[in-house]
# Entry
Amino acid sequence: MPLPLAPIATVALRYGLRYGAVALAAYALSKSQNGLRRDQRHEDAMDELGEGLAFRRDQEQVSGGARMRRTFRLGDTGPGVEIDASALGRLRVRRV
# Structure
């Protein structure tokens, strides 16, 4: 008995258009001249962050940083991937 393609096609079309549009936008942004430029000073600041969560309070602001670095492997000696996520933030509140 043949499989009806209409229900499968509507689901595939709905998700295909959604994820295809996101992929196309990411590709266009990566190929543009002004998009996603990398500043080496920012990269160095992210590399110098210690692992974990840290906050610092000065007179006028609170600064914080977080870093998580993990390695995931498939099996004991299988291929792996390292994930290094870091974030810097600042909250400044002033009375005017």
